Amino acid sequence: MSYLKVSGTQFVDGAGAPVVLLGAGLGGWMMMENFISGFPGCEFHIREALAEAIGVEKASLFFEKFLDNFFAEADAKFFKSLSLNCVRIAVNYHHFEDDMNPRVLKIDAFKQLDRVVTLCAAEEIYTIIDLHSTPGGQSGGWHADAGTHFGNFWKHKDFQDRFVWLWTQIAEHYKDNIWVAGYNLMNEPADPHPHHTGLISIYDRTYAAIHDIDPNHILFLDGNTFATDFTKFPEDSATRWGSNVAFAIHDYSTFGFPNSPEAYEGTNDQKDKMKASYARKRKWMDERVLCVWNGEWGPVYGREVYDGEQTEDINRRRYMVLKDQLEIYRKDSLSWSIWLYKDIGFQGMVYVSQDTPYMKHFREFLLKKHRLAVDAWGADDKYVKPIYEPIINLIKEEVAEPNQKLYPPIWSLENRVTRISRTILVAEFLVKEWAELLIGKSDKELVDFAESFAFEKCKKREELNSILKLNALEM
Questions:
Q1: Is 188 a catalytic residue?
Q2: Before 189, cis peptide (omega within 30)?
Q3: Residues 282-326: pLDDT tens digits?
Q4: Which of 123, 296, 389, 414 is catalytic?
């Protein structure tokens, strides 16, 4: 065994043989997300609120048991059974340092991450460490765990200094681990500078800092604007950060979501649109013969509790999207990491059963959260859309059209309004309600809720897993 490397447009092993990385994102674990485990808002919101509601000790017990159970040996073995070979592990910087004690590594910083890296290595599964949340927030997404709609990371040098420092700590810790395929430096950056100046600068600094410590691991570099735009990357990108670099796109298809412009039937026209979107994201790298890695992709799925009798038809279409995307990737021998491995039923390969203590206890709250569409990801806003339309119309009527276009451009005016007013503002008002549902619960009950996320308590999304396994066996 030796370190994986980038050779031209491919990943290769120590003997120079091509390796195609096929895997999934372990999101919602060391970087908790609202739609994955059912809380409103951001991870820091619920950690603070739960400590206030039930006390620091009980809150710590719940979160620690949650981490212990979300990914364990059974998960690694199941993952291996699908012939998949790579897990992209999303991590939150809060696990490594405290905002009030910056640049001081926490005593147990690597406890959970080491555990899962080791479990995966035992099954000959590579891991990619993905810094999903940065100090200050690298974007306005809930998944940056900053609670705002813009990324303060780009405005404060100290946030950037802490980012570079943290990567030196991670590199020092894993520099000798050959089952760590590499480091995904920053998930979905959203640098508002028109020439990506901030992003290029932070990649320069972080590359130099890591390379001094660890010259062997692959660097996975996301494009700007949520891993979709490389057009302002420097022309010397093939050598600027060394040759051991893969450029990461995120290739979500609108056909795989509730707001799809039309029902997906797999027509030639729809397939062409899907191919064109994918080709556009990787065009810059292809023109320069660089290595491309698809760090996130995949549809979301219907759920009977929310979608009723339409669930089967929704999922039939979503699996068509999945298969057609895989066909495109297979032709390019593309390495990818589907989003997502585990959740409470929206997108995961495995998902928490409705019969578990956690899902039973939060059932009414989850129904309310869905009705209010307080999660941005794949939201179905049919119940609340009329409430927000007057705000959208007001802006359209009172603001000159050129001024309606703000960064990031992939957020439409409608999307921006609902992200700020619904998925930030309304979500914040629900945080205490979520936390208060755990008031008065015994230690055993809190552990039972956390253990609901264990593999043995989950259901498998059989058709999704079957499709992924068949694809892997055909590669």
A1: yes
A2: no
A3: 999 999 999 999 999 999 999 999 999 999 999 999 999 999 999
A4: 296
